[in-house]
Amino acid sequence: xxxxNILVLPGDGIGPxxxxxxxxxxxxxxxxGLTAIETDVDLVGGAAYDDHGQAISDAAMEKALAADAVLFxxxxxxxxxxxxxxxxxxxxxxxxxxxxxxxxxLRPAIxxxxxxxxxxxKPELVEGLDILIVRELTGGVYxxxxxxxxxxxxxxxxxxxxxxYTTHEIDRIARVAFELARTRSNQVxxxxxxxxxxxxxLWNKVVTATHADFQDVELSHMLADAGxxxxxxxPKQFDVxxxxxxxxxxxxxxxAMLTGSLGMLPSASLGAEDATTGKRKAMYEPVHGSAPxxxxxxxxxxxxxxxxxxxxxxxxxxxxxxATQVETAIANVLDAGIRTGDIAGSGxxxxxxxxxxxxxxxxxxxxxxx
Length: 370
Ligand code: NAD
Ligand code: IPM
Ligand code: MN
Known about the structure:
There is one protein chain. Helices cover 41% and strands 22% of the residues. α7 (198-210) links the parallel β8 (187-192) and β9 (218-223). α11 (320-335) packs across α13. The protein has 2 domains: 1-103 and 264-370, Isopropylmalate Dehydrogenase (3-Layer(aba) Sandwich), CATH 3.40.718; 130-258, Isopropylmalate Dehydrogenase. The protein is built from 13 helices and 12 strands. The chain starts with a strand and ends with a helix. It has helices at 14-31, 46-52, 58-66, 89-99, 123-126, 167-182, 198-210, 224-233, 245-258, 303-315, 320-335, 341-344, 353-369; strands at 3-11, 36-41, 69-74, 104-110, 130-136, 144-151, 157-162, 187-192, 218-223, 240-243, 266-273, 280-286. The structure holds nicotinamide-adenine-dinucleotide (NAD), 3-isopropylmalic acid and manganese (II) ion. The site of nicotinamide-adenine-dinucleotide has 22 residues, from α4.
């Protein structure tokens, strides 16, 4: 296999715990000659702040820019509640997304058959669920200017965040959604708030215009609030959902719970294809955060992290077969009734993070052996 350089950023809380289980899989696939992944590990988030006062160092950013892909754990936690806004752990993640220009965030929500009963919805509503949220990741209210707090003459404070989108930003994320829909069930639902937001009107107009190049894909539009409602009412009506940065953040947490736990959902954040090399910058991370409530207790579910690694194999390393084998291993382990606490439900004794990781590795070995 071709050599690849991966920057590993475990981060805070359960980030490093989940990442350790991916390390085990990489060690094995490298030893077997299935991959030739060279990893470099660095600090991000609160861990980086504690070390050098910034949520990510310039040196780590340089490494991220040079790597074939970045594997990211999670950042944040109550310990850093009072650090300056620009140095808070989450700022490290946002800088990575922005400076690597990772505008397309793919958040698949798949309900594994064995977990249909772990969802907060009735099993028949989520059984076989397979949706893909395509979230715009470098624009919108996350990055729009002005973004500030000003003190008024009367002593009151006024905080401003700006929602802003350009035609280009909307067009390129719509193209990603339409192209991915072609590899799935050929349906895209675009969500915005055109009834109250100028950016929603533009979003709707541009997605509709871009659709002219994808006539074979079925396009529908939904107001984002109604979309949230439909996601919990009848989630299986959706194939691909394309939406902005903030709505995508919220709707993907909703979608995550349909699958049983936030600890199940992976994501890929992709940049534009380089015209000469055909390569895209990419970062892979679970949708969940640092889970301070369970950090350090060996309770974290590493599946979202391992599934993010599988997405890296598929989208950055060109190893779709190995990616599918890792995903099959996840499904098999769940079928075997092996569960961390978040998906155990009643009647199953939960295993620890590392026991789940060991079970996943053993199953990957079995699946690869055929
Ligand atoms: P969270 O995702 O960390 O946790 C929400 C709930 O889900 C918690 O009860 C947690 O125990 C549970 N959970 C999450 N992942 C799990 C896993 N793998 N296994 C088992 N249970 C899991 O969200 P939060 O509590 O709102 O945020 C905590 C911190 O994480 C905040 O600082 C937030 O900004 C940050 N955060 C970071 C990322 C990221 O790094 N990508 C994403 C979301 C939140
Ligand atoms: C996510 C997280 C991040 C976001 C935070 C930690 C900056 O919630 O990746 O979903 O809001 O995008
Ligand atoms: Mn989120």
